[in-house]
Design a protein that fits this description.
Blueprint (H helix, E strand, L loop, with lengths): L2 E10 L2 E7 L5 E6 L31 E9 L5 E9 L2 E6 L2 E3 L1 H10 L10 E2 L3 H6 L3 H12 L5 H197 L7 H17 L1 H100 L8 H16 L4 E4 H4 E3 L5 H8 L6 E3 L2 H14 L6 E3 L18 E3 L4 E3 L5 H12 L3 E3 L2 H9 L7 E3 L4 E2 L5 E2 L3 H36 L2 H82 L1 H7 L4 H147 L6 E3 L18 H11 L2 E2 L6 H4 L4 H24 L7 H63 L5 E6 L10 E6 L13 H18 L5 E4 L7 H17 L3 E4 L3 H4 L4 E9 L3 E9 L5 E4 L7 E4 L2
Parallel strand pairs: 3-24, 3-25, 8-23, 11-12, 15-16, 23-24
Antiparallel strand pairs: 1-2, 1-4, 4-5, 5-6, 6-7, 9-11, 10-14, 13-15, 16-17, 17-18, 19-20, 21-22, 25-26, 27-28
Helix pairs in contact: 3-20, 4-14, 4-16, 4-19, 4-20, 5-14, 6-13, 6-14, 6-16, 9-13, 14-15, 20-21
Length: 1228
């Protein structure tokens, strides 16, 4: 085992000169003050030269600094590891031999010191950080210790290479699969080409017979229609002249009706203005009426209060009169008493009479008695006057008590009245609030409705303006063509006859998704663009019969159940630069959308639309299969090779989509106009809103007055009464207590006075003893009492009289003051009632004036309504006459239209015949069929295709005339067709031929166009497949090689990490138990990813002694420190360093845990470990084998010094207090 013997430093940081630290024992403690140089810390410097002592203050002690580590093994062989700083570089020496940095690290690793892992150092605060590490950080710590992190870069590199090799293998596998399929396809295309050419030749021959039959039948129909047309044109001219005369008469009737209608509108405008004025007048009248009612109610309340106060005044005046009468009665009683007293004194005053000598002697004795009892007499006199004063005060307080009781009763009555008034006002206030809330709710609802109406009106006006602008731009008001009007009438009739099965024209239910596709869609739709869509073939035949009966022109029908819709080729959607035509056509109908989509699929088929003619031609003819394409300008490329260009007639037909927009705008305009009319009617409800606002304002005013009065009562009157009652009650309580105290005091003083009088009486008895015997009385008091008793009785009666009079006068004075206040209040109330009555009269007068104004407005409105009724009757009469004339003109117009329809029907039928002949000739020319002409040439035929909707122009008529000069040789036509007579037989024959051609074309359609370049392509495909196979084999070999290399690196990394983790997880529990000194303690390490543990986290859980399981975050600071130390010692046991430096690991530990930790360290140092601990706690460093004291001194700058003490000679005393823990105390 290698251990640290000494540490030599020279001019390193705070250590000046050469300093030897050591020798180090098994268990060493370093102590010292902060900043003295004892700390283990990272070197936080910018340049290496800053490590030289004094360099940080610009005074380096030398040019070099050196640190040497002197280690010894079990055989006492020393090894010195030295690192020197020279300038701004480092030098490394082992046993004074210069070595490289890599060799230096390698030698350190041999003795167990791993520089990257720092497995010999635990910095200050590291214990707390280890306890708080998350699972990923613990994994990184173990990876550094196990040195498996050195394989991480190679692991990631090999893994990325393996993934890349697998992707390349999959890529070449897919290419190989595609090349195999392509080879099979090329070999099959060669066989299909021969079959395809034979089928084309057969179809061409069938087409020739069909075209000859159709031309032959067409020429026979043209000659019959020319004869019918002349007769119908003459009848139409005669009917038109009669219609012109009737229309002039109708125009004059329209002018008269318009004049009357304008007058009616003017009257209606005046009525609306008058209604507005009436609404304002009504709201003002309602407001005035509400205000008047409020003032009436206030006046009534004031009168009632005045009456109540008046009654109270009468009651108080009666009480005052009664008090005066009582006072007079008391005075009369006193006078009667005085007279009676004088009479009794006269009657009994002469019982005992003294002579002059006796009277003189009595006076002398009296003076003598007075001199002897002067002190007692003075005391008795003083007490007598005090008792008398107390009795007067007591009587006064008793009178005040009665007055206060009367005042409390009066104020309680007043408080009850005010409280009842407040309750009534609260009820009235609540009713006003509920009414006001109802008004506000109605106002909010109506305001919101009107606001929505105004907003909607603005929106409608804006939208209507936009619609009108669009209509103006599109010239919507131009007259519809006769042909369109006829078609519209026919469609309306058919819908009425078959409402559920006749859907309408195709153009009404679909449209291009953008205007740029209009020409292309119009070209492909062709004769179907105005076709009528029906539900079934039966409905279509019924509609045709109806048209024949009504003599309508020919129309095309599309029965949905009769259509043979071919499936779409979904692969065409992926063709670059083109879109399927069905994708640029949108269904605008809300109902039967799926059935209408079926019709669009039937017409469009697999047609493609391209941006330019060049792209359309390329897609149509240059691919493996021919496709039907159309350019945006309307140029159509058919599969058969037929090319039909766009023309001015096509642009005219394409306007149909704009006309649809025009029709939609018309309908939208009508909807907006109707909605605007409804919104104008809603606007008239503003008068109701004004009325509600007026009512709400009235309720608000009443509520304001009621609240003000209620607040005045609650804040002033009621508190004032309550305060007065409270004051009087407290005064009454004080008076009661004072009266009680005064009564007690009077009793005590009377008793004392009686004692004094007894003493005086005894003294007087001794003085007057002889005199009393002489006059024959028992005591002198008998004589005196005869005279004094009467006087005392009289004084008592006088006192009672005076008290009674004083009380009555006070009560009368109080009642007089209350009466005066009541009179002032009555005067104010009288003035208030008068003011309210004047205000009420003014409001009533204003209300009557507003009522007169409302009645005048109603009268004027009634007159205008009567005038409006009269004008409406005139307008109605004019309208009836106008309708009669209009009906007659309409009937005549219908007759003319019927004749015109018959003419146009004939013309259209003739045009259709010419058109059909033209299209047949063009088709023959385009298809290059070998037809024989007796005169003329096919080169004279225009190459432009015309459809059923092409308008008759000079150009088309010129085409028809030139084509009429052509004479066709029908000798090649089969004889069976020429002998047919009826239309049904001809159509049946042609239909059979078409079915035969259709079956062949169906077969051709289902037969894909072969690729005639398949032979040339075969060799290219084989070479391509061979190259792909070679690349696939090479990629497979590379993947296998990368997989083997990755597995090797993975196994190496897994082995290194697992060996470390298994060791640590096996020993950590025992170490934790030993540190805690308790077998119930548990420490568990577990990995999140067992397959590759270095990619996941490591969970560390501890169960402290005597506690339940808790997560590491819930442990106390000391428990976390013990757990972290257990983990550190377990990791250190896997790759032990020759020494282990711990910097203040006991910072979070108490004395008990420090004792446990030092015991564990001493046990470990006895086995195979050398530990150096930096600690400032005596409980820790007192157990060490050696104590190293670091201190600092100052010269030019601070430098560190060291003192080493060997503590082994000093024994440890074991103390056992009967507990599970042991404490070692070093005896100094």
């Amino acid at each position: 085992m290698v251990y640290l013997k000494q540490l030599e430093v020279e001019n390193f940081k705070s250590w000046r000169g050469r300093q030897v630290i050591g020798p180090f024992m098994r268990f060493n403690c370093v102590i010292g003050t902060n900043g003295s140089g004892e700390r283990v810390a990272s070197l936080r410097i910018r340049n290496l030269r800053d490590l030289i002592h004094g360099a940080h203050v610009g005074q380096p002690a030398a040019d070099t600094a050196r640190v040497a580590l002197r280690c010894c093994d079990d055989d006492d062989r020393e090894t010195v590891f030295c690192r020197s700083v020279v300038g701004n570089s480092c030098e490394y020496h082992i046993n004074d031999t210069h070595v490289t940095f890599a060799t230096y690290l390698e030698e350190l690793t041999k003795i167990g010191i791993i520089a990257k892992a720092q497995n010999c150092l635990v910095f200050q605060g590291a214990v707390e950080s280890i306890a708080l590490k998350d699972p990923k950080e613990r994994t990184k710590m173990l990876e550094i210790i196990s040195q498996s992190k050195e394989c991480a870069a190679e692991y990631e590199k090999k893994k990325a290479a393996l993934l890349k090799a697998k992707e390349d293998t999959q890529f070449y596998f897919n290419k190989k699969k595609s090349a195999t399929v392509e080879r099979k396809q090329v070999s099959q295309e060669k066989i299909e080409a021969q079959k395809y050419q034979t089928l084309l030749d057969n179809i061409d021959q069938k087409h020739l017979q069909l075209r000859l039959a159709e031309l032959y039948h067409n020429e026979k129909g043209i000659s019959a229609l020319n004869e019918t047309l002349g007769q119908k044109q003459q009848a139409t001219a005669n009917k038109n002249s009669k219609l012109v005369k009737c229309e002039q008469t109708l125009k004059s009737y329209k002018k008269e009706h318009g004049r009357l209608a304008r007058e009616q509108q003017h009257i209606e405008k005046e009525i609306r203005a008058q209604e507005h004025i009436l609404s304002q007048s009504r709201s003002q009248y309602i407001k005035a009426k509400v205000n008047t009612a409020h003032h009436v109610k206030k006046a009534e309340e004031s009168r009632n209060a005045y009456k109540k106060t008046k009654k109270l005044q009468a009651t108080q005046e009666q009480d005052l009169a009664n008090g005066l009468e009582e006072l007079a009665a008391v005075e009369r009683t006193w006078r009667d008493y005085e007279k009676q007293f004088q009479w009794e004194g006269t009657l009994h005053g002469r019982d005992i009479e003294l002579d002059k000598d006796q009277l003189e002697r009595y006076r002398e004795l009296k003076q003598l008695a007075q001199r002897q009892g002067a002190v007692l007499s003075q005391q008795a006199e003083k007490l007598h006057w005090e008792v008398r004063a107390d009795n007067d005060k007591l009587a006064l307080d008793q009178r005040r008590e009665k007055e206060v009781e009367v005042g409390i009763r009066n104020h309680q009555i007043q408080l009850e009245e005010v409280t009842r008034k407040a309750e009534k006002l609260e009820e009235y206030t609540q009713s006003c609030i509920s009414s006001l809330e109802e008004y506000h709710q109605r106002e909010e609802n109506l305001s919101a409705e009107l606001q929505r109406g105004r907003q909607r009106t603005e929106e409608v006006n804006r939208e209507l303006g936009q619609v009108m602008e669009d209509l103006g731009n599109a010239r919507l008001y131009s007259l519809e063509s006769t042909r369109q009007q006829q078609r519209k009438d026919l469609l309306d009739k058919l819908r009425r006859l078959y409402p559920e099965t006749v859907y309408g024209q195709l153009s009404d239910f679909c449209s291009p998704i953008h205007k740029k596709y209009q020409l292309a869609v119009t070209k492909v739709f062709g004769r179907y663009i105005n076709a009528i869509i029906v539900a079934s073939e039966k409905v279509a035949r019924d509609c045709i019969i109806f048209m024949k009966e009504e003599r309508y022109e020919h129309e095309t029908f599309l029965p949905i159940d009769y259509l043979d819709v071919k499936p779409l080729n979904e692969r065409l959607r992926e063709v670059p630069g083109a879109k399927m035509l069905v994708d640029v056509v949108q269904i605008t109908a809300a109902t039967a959308a799926s059935q209408l989509r079926r019709v669009v699929h039937f017409i469009c088929g697999n047609s493609l639309v391209c941006e330019t003619i060049k792209e359309a031609r390329h897609l149509a003819f240059d691919g493996q299969k021919r496709l039907k394409t159309v350019a945006l300008d309307g140029t159509l490329f058919a599969k058969s090779g037929l090319i039909s260009g766009g023309s001015s007639d096509l642009r005219t037909k394409a306007r149909l989509w704009d006309e649809k927009d025009m029709t939609r705008l018309k309908e939208r305009k009508d909807q907006l106009t109707t909605e605007l009319r409804d919104l104008m009617r809603l606007k008239r409800r503003e008068t109701d809103l004004n009325q509600i606002i007026a009512q709400a304002q009235g309720a608000q005013i009443r509520l304001k007055y009621s609240k003000a009065e209620l607040e005045n009562i609650k804040k002033k009157n009621i508190p004032k009464c309550q305060a007065e009652i409270s004051r009087m009650e407290s005064e009454l309580v004080n008076l009661n207590s004072q009266i009680h105290m005064q009564q007690e005091s009077v009793k005590a003083k009377e008793a004392e006075l009686k004692t004094l009088r007894d003493q005086i009486d005894k003294m007087e008895d001794s003085v007057f003893f002889d005199f009393c015997a002489e006059i024959g009385v028992g005591s002198i008091r008998e004589y005196e009492q005869e005279h004094l008793r009467q006087q005392a009785e009289r004084d008592k009666k006088r006192l009672e009289f005076e008290n009674h009079c004083t009380r009555l006068n006070a009560q009368l004075q109080y009642e007089q003051n209350q009466l005066e206040q009541l009179k002032k209040k009555l005067h104010k109330m009288e003035e208030y009632v008068d003011e309210e009555e004047r205000t009420m009269a003014e409001r009533r007068k204003e209300e009557e004036e507003l009522l007169v104004a409302v009645e005048n407005c109603q009268d004027k409105l009634l007159e205008l309504n009567n005038l409006l009724l009269s004008k409406k009757s005139q307008v109605t009469t004019a309208k009836v006459e106008l309708d009669q004339k209009s009906q007659s003109v309409e009937e005549m117009n219908k007759e003319l239209m019927k004749l015109q329809r018959e003419v146009m029907s004939t013309e259209t039928a003739l045009e259709q015949k010419y058109l059909a002949r033209h299209n047949l000739l063009v088709s023959i020319k385009i298809q290059n069929l070998s037809i024989t002409l007796l005169s003329g040439s096919l080169n004279e035929i225009s190459g432009e295709q015309l459809d059923a909707e092409s308008e008759s122009t000079l150009a088309t008529m010129d085409v028809f005339e030139r084509e009429a000069q052509l004479v066709i040789d029908y000798s090649a036509l089969e004889e069976d067709f020429r002998i047919l007579q009826t239309e049904e037989e001809v159509q049946a024959y042609i239909e059979n031929m078409r079915e035969s051609i259709s079956s062949l074309e169906e077969l051709l359609h289902h037969t894909s166009t072969p690729n005639f370049k398949a032979l040339e392509k075969m060799k290219e495909v084989k070479d391509k497949l061979q190259g792909i196979m070679e690349a696939f084999d090479a990629s497979t070999k590379a993947t296998k090689k990368c997989s083997q290399e990755f597995e090797q690196v993975k196994a190496q990394r897994f082995q290194l990490f697992s060996r470390c983790f298994e060791h640590v997880s096996a020993v950590i529990d025992q170490i934790y138990k030993r540190i805690c000194r308790n077998s119930s303690a548990q420490a568990i390490l577990s990995v999140d990813n067992p397959d590759e543990p270095y990619l996941g986290g490591i969970t560390y859980n501890c169960v402290a002694p005597g506690k339940r399981f808790m997560s590491m975050d819930n442990l106390s600071g000391g428990e976390k420190a013990i757990a972290a130390l257990a983990l550190l010692f377990a990791i250190h046991s896997f790759r032990p360093a020759p020494f282990f430096v711990l910097d203040e690991v006991d910072a979070a530990l108490d004395n008990t845990n420090i004792s446990k930790l030092t015991s564990f360290i001493r046990e470990e140092t006895k086995r195979n470990m050398q530990i150096i601990v930096i600690s400032l706690k005596e409980e820790f460093f007192s157990k060490a084998d050696a104590l190293l004291g670091v201190f600092s001194e100052s010269d030019d700058c601070m430098f560190s010094c060291i003192v080493t003490i060997d503590l082994r000679p000093y024994p440890l005393i074991e103390e056992d207090n009967g507990k599970d823990t042991d404490t070692d105390v070093r005896a100094a």
